[in-house]
Request: fold
Amino acid sequence: MQSQSIYKVPQGKLLKISIEYDEKDNVIRDIRITGDFFAYPEEAIELMETKLKNTVIEREQLQQKIRSIITEYHIKFIGVDSEGLAQAILMCKP
Amino acid sequence: MKEQWRLLQTGFNTAFSNMAVDRAILVENSEGKVPPTVRFYGWIPPAISIGYFQSVAEEIDVNACEKLGIDYVRRMTGGGAVFHDKELTYSIVIPEAHPAIPKNILKSYGRICNALLQGLAQLGINGTYAPINDILVDGKKISGNAQTRKANTVLQHGTILLDVDVDTMFSLLKVPNEKIKDKLIQDVKQRVTSIQHILGTKVGFEEVAEALKLGFEEEFDVELIQGILTKEEKTLATQFEKECFSTTHWNHRR
Reply:
């Protein structure tokens, strides 16, 4: 199943998410994160997209996974945070 | 004696060349081969730049660009899509460890934007920095800015609008919801301003560049010395233009 969302992070930037997910297992198969935010280093976004594959689309699990990737790879986001990113992904589901 | 930085006035070039030159300066500065550098430049033909994380397909009407002879390029910095037409673009490249640059990224946006504010003040324009990356005059946006940090070096570039044509801009950019496009255009017209609009008279590129030069000198207490790109920077810029910024691989990568 493919789906998209557009989410304006409160006090932040616009996130656009495209995902392909497994309806039965409720996990992300593929994800693309675009938008007018900032991330340092920039290449970390591709890493984030790869690491989010196979994550269950559920708020707590998404936030935890995103936070652990941010910590492990020393990513600095500006205009978006783990809550905002998780919210945008959740909004892809009907 | 004041610290001396380099000032580059590289004139008007293509989007691909402009982005390649900024990257070349970053590389050479990171290797200690050139001093901190402030650069002023413009765009011929007019062009759209999109942020590193944006998608060409989502942001740009490629057919409209082709029809109107507008180039488009992906920046190495984040942030949003910008239509570069009647504006002055600046870039600053400086080591991350330089005392003038706050370690905190958001604070460093503020510091560099202060230089722009001092420059605008030279023209009699009173602006304010609006985090994350805008400068406002009377609550309307006159400048957008974007920063990357690579190889322990800061590159921030941004625009100062000399004049603005919102209708043309929106004929080139896609909007998430076509049904509200007209309203969006009206909203943006309310939220964007330009030097010409504020002062009620046309101010030339050179005059604005001179004002911004003074702004950078005052904010950072340095002397900007007019220079030129080194041979190595030119070689690198040609390489980056050819292998990166003019390629489909780079521009359509997201």
Remarks:
- The helical segments of chain A are 44-51, 59-72, 82-90.
